[in-house]
TrEMBL record, chain A:
GO cellular component terms listed in the entry, alphabetical order: mitochondrion; ribonucleoprotein complex; ribosome
Domain of life: Eukaryota
Record organism: Mycena rosella
Biased composition (Basic residues): 86-96
UniProt cross-references to InterPro entries, sorted A to Z: Ribosomal_mS33 (IPR013219)
Major place of residence: mitochondrion
Region annotated Disordered, chain positions: 75-108
Protein name: Small ribosomal subunit protein mS33
UniProtKB/TrEMBL annotation, chain B:
Protein name: Ribosomal protein S14
Keyword Ribosomal protein: yes
GO cellular component: mitochondrial small ribosomal subunit
Gene Ontology biological-process entries: translation
Family: Belongs to the universal ribosomal protein uS14 family.
Claim: Ribonucleoprotein is one of the keywords in the record: yes
Native source organism of the sequence: Mycena rosella (Pink bonnet)
Top-rank lineage group of the source organism: Eukaryota
Classification via PANTHER family: 30S RIBOSOMAL PROTEIN S14, SMALL RIBOSOMAL SUBUNIT PROTEIN US14M
Record's keyword terms, sorted: Ribonucleoprotein, Ribosomal protein
Amino acid sequence: MNAVRALPSKMKTITRLRCEIFQTSYNPKNLRTGAKYLRSRLRGPSMMEYYPKTISLADVKRECPELEIVNEAEEQRLADVEDRKRRGKGTPKKAKKKEDSRRSAKKR
Amino acid sequence: MNNARVLRDIKARNGVLKNEVTRRAYLYVARNTTLPPQIRHQAQLQLNTFGKYTRPTTVKNRCSETGRGRGIMSEFALCRFQFRLKALAGELNGVHKATCTLFTLPCYT
């Protein structure tokens, strides 16, 4: 019986010792110490591995500008935008006031 | 070429990676009930200043082929249809169509 009665206090010391040895936080009262936020692994690095890596022409151009690579599709796109602007079909200016925006004009 | 939703997801993943350590530190302070409430509140206010694309919950596994957000098999980063197409084309190692040729049970109708 004696051994059984002594068990809780012994368990306490054992837990404390275990926490010291394995460097975990000793928290006998189960307080919210926020230790779980420090304990859990960082998830960012594995998140970055989800999508397979792709290399675009723009990336190569940014990495080594000395190669002077011409991205023809991009050049054509920019030329088209310029052309559209010249014909007065460019993107509209950003609305300064709320009344100027197309969305609010539609409502009225 | 990735679609806009995938690009947004990549942006969120980058944000999480960059801000994870500082966010964790603030979370630790804010959720620690042994610290004074004033300090915890300050930490919570700091947490609120982080942008939308720094929270890990904004990250969603999408299909790397089509950008679809539902029915994704995370191991292959593909949606169910793309998974089927690729598996049937033999582009996924170790995946083949299940068939049962051992037992040919008679079919009673």
